[in-house]
Specification:
The chain is an alpha+beta fold. The chain has 4 domains: 218 residues, no CATH class; 88 residues, Immunoglobulin-like; 81 residues, Sandwich (Immunoglobulin-like), CATH 2.60.40; 114 residues, no CATH class. The chain has 11 helices and 26 strands. Strands 18, 19, 20, 21, 22, 23, 24, 25 and 26 form a 9-stranded mixed sheet that branches. The protein has a 5-stranded mixed sheet with strand order 2-8-7-4-5, with no helix packed on it. A 4-stranded antiparallel sheet has the order 9-11-14-13, with no helix packed on it. Helix 1 packs antiparallel against helix 9, helix 2 runs antiparallel to helix 3 and helix 3 runs antiparallel to helix 5. The longest helix is centred in the N-terminal third of the chain and has 38 residues. The radius of gyration is 34 Å and the shape is elongated.
Length: 522
């Protein structure tokens, strides 16, 4: 009899797709990524449907056996009924969360299978962490309780371990590094499409756990062969999404297997060799959607062949990577610019990058530091080591390289409240506060950049009652004693200027600021 196996290639494929798209969550959400979530969601829903139907058939046969011989099957049927009830309760709770998230974003008629706003970043957070409810914590507690209930019922230690890992709520290594809880890593700033897919993945995992237990219960009452007449053909791909230049791989076989003979497998009009052992491999040289159709023939005892058809499809996509500057869409010459570089589905240690102008160094956690030189654009090339050992170029992104803009001069003064503030001129300033200032400062502080410059020299310009000007220079950032005396000798309402301000930035370039700092004595 065919039973649900969490260690099957299909389950490994589902887990692989789950990990691939979790890696995407750290990136800016593009249309292609959202489309990818839609493909995974459709695949998961089909798998959930198949698992649910299979589990229902197993429990139906368990029920039939109970009705025929209650004394023999009482213990196993009772456990099966508990498993089904607990599984359906958790499954329906997760389904309710999905519907609430979708309706939060798409309105009261929102449908989890037809998302209108898949890129909404607030719906999942609002539902899972809303005030005084915290459904994220409730979901974690429910999964933990279900795992503790279901795992001891699986007799096979390897399947028991897989079931426990699939239902684990332990934060991933990356989440721990980011100091995130399991709940935050699942739902914090997640696009709605990702949250719905993650919840569907949980539904798939609990259906697989339910199937593993029901399969064990059936074996315990010697019902191993009661579904032999319901053998079905399956195509189990490693992934339905393939990058151009890679290969599509799938295992094709029967759910019930006779180890004494091999079935004959025909794929797209050609028979697989016995040496292939059910593994179908085809190159992926072009992008698009490709069909895999065929049938399997198995010899029966009377010499005839039982035939089962199969059909599936896979998708070939262009290699892609995301290269996103942390500050803005340009790089500044002579300073360290933080860049986020990541490739969906590829661990960060297998991603490398180079820059055509300057230097590029990895800081870890997908953050790289680019230090370009002024004079030409910079091209960042991203390469990834694929699972088969190939080095694949994933993306080339060009950045404009700009010189740092001029900073603004300012004075650190103490306001009447006793707080330090940046005085940038124009407004009245108390003479005592101005005398207390020791030095002139300069910095870029526009809300995006916050870069300090070194003041090399400046002039203090004072005007007398006849309009004649007196210029008092300083050879550094500090006010000279002559400049301080000039400030003390000013009258209320008088204006002074700080001009000819020469500065040097972290890029090493010396420049003279065009705008003077106006001091209006109060």
């Amino acid at each position: 009899m065919a039973v649900n196996n969490p260690n099957s290639p299909r389950q490994r494929m589902i887990n692989l797709m789950y990990l691939v798209f979790i890696a995407m969550l750290a990136l800016n959400v593009s249309t292609e990524v959202l489309d990818g979530f839609e493909l995974v969601e459709e695949s998961l829903l089909r798998s959930v449907k198949v698992s649910t139907q299979r589990n229902d058939r197993i429990f139906g046969d368990l029920t039939d056996a109970y009705n025929v011989n209650r004394e023999k099957t009482q213990e196993w049927y009772g456990k099966g009924a508990q498993v089904k009830t607990r599984t359906d309760t958790l499954y329906n709770y997760i389904q309710d969360l999905k519907e609430r998230i979708v309706k939060k974003a798409d309105g009261k008629n929102g449908d989890p299978e037809h998302l209108k706003r898949p890129d909404d970043l607030n719906a999942a957070y609002d539902v899972m962490f809303e005030h005084k409810k915290n459904d994220a914590a409730r979901l974690k507690a429910a999964i933990d309780a279900y795992r503790q209930f279901i795992t001891p019922m699986v007799s096979d230690p390897s399947i028991q371990n897989i079931t426990e890992n699939n239902l684990s709520t332990e934060p991933s290594a990356k989440a721990k590094a980011n100091k995130q809880t399991w709940e935050e890593s699942m739902f914090w700033q997640m696009p709605m499409a990702a949250s719905v897919t993650l919840l569907t993945k949980l539904q798939k995992d609990i259906r697989d756990a339910e199937g593993a237990v029901l399969g064990d219960l059936v074996k315990n009452i010697d019902l191993k062969d009661f579904r032999v007449n319901d053998i079905e053909a399956y195509v189990i791909p490693e992934s339905q999404i393939v990058m151009r230049g890679g290969s599509y791989r799938a295992n094709i076989g029967m759910m019930a297997r006779d180890s004494t003979q091999r079935p004959r497998i025909f794929v797209n009009g050609r028979q697989l060799s016995d040496e292939a052992n059910g593994r179908y491999t085809v190159g992926a040289g072009a992008t698009g959607t490709f069909q895999v159709n065929g049938f399997i023939e198995m010899a029966q005892g009377d010499g005839s062949f039982m035939k089962r058809d199969f059909s599936t499809q896979y998708y070939v996509i262009e290699p892609s990577a995301t290269v996103a500057p942390v500050l803005m869409n340009v790089l500044y010459a002579g300073i360290a610019n933080d860049i986020r570089i990541a490739v969906p589905g590829v661990p960060s240690q297998n991603v490398s990058a180079t820059i055509s102008n300057g230097s590029l160094v990895s800081k870890g956690n997908d953050i790289w530091v680019a230090t370009p030189k002024y004079g030409s654009d910079a091209v960042i090339t991203v390469t990834a080591k694929m699972s088969d050992g190939r080095m694949q170029e994933m993306a080339k992104t060009s950045f404009r390289v700009r010189q740092l803009p001029d900073p603004m001069a300012y004075l650190n003064i103490t306001n009447p409240d006793g707080n330090k503030v940046r005085y940038k001129g124009g407004a009245p300033i108390a003479r005592a506060a101005l005398v207390a200032v020791e030095a002139l400062n300069a910095a870029i502080d526009d809300g995006i950049l916050d870069i300090n410059f070194t003041v090399l020299r400046f002039d203090l310009v004072k005007f007398d009652s006849m309009g004649f000007r007196t210029t008092i220079p300083s050879s550094g950032a500090s006010f000279t004693s002559q400049q301080k005396d000039a400030i003390r000798g000013t009258q209320r309402g008088q204006t002074m200027l700080i001009s000819s301000i020469a500065v040097r930035g972290p890029d090493g370039i010396e420049r003279t600021l065009s705008a003077p700092l106006e001091l209006r004595i109060n």
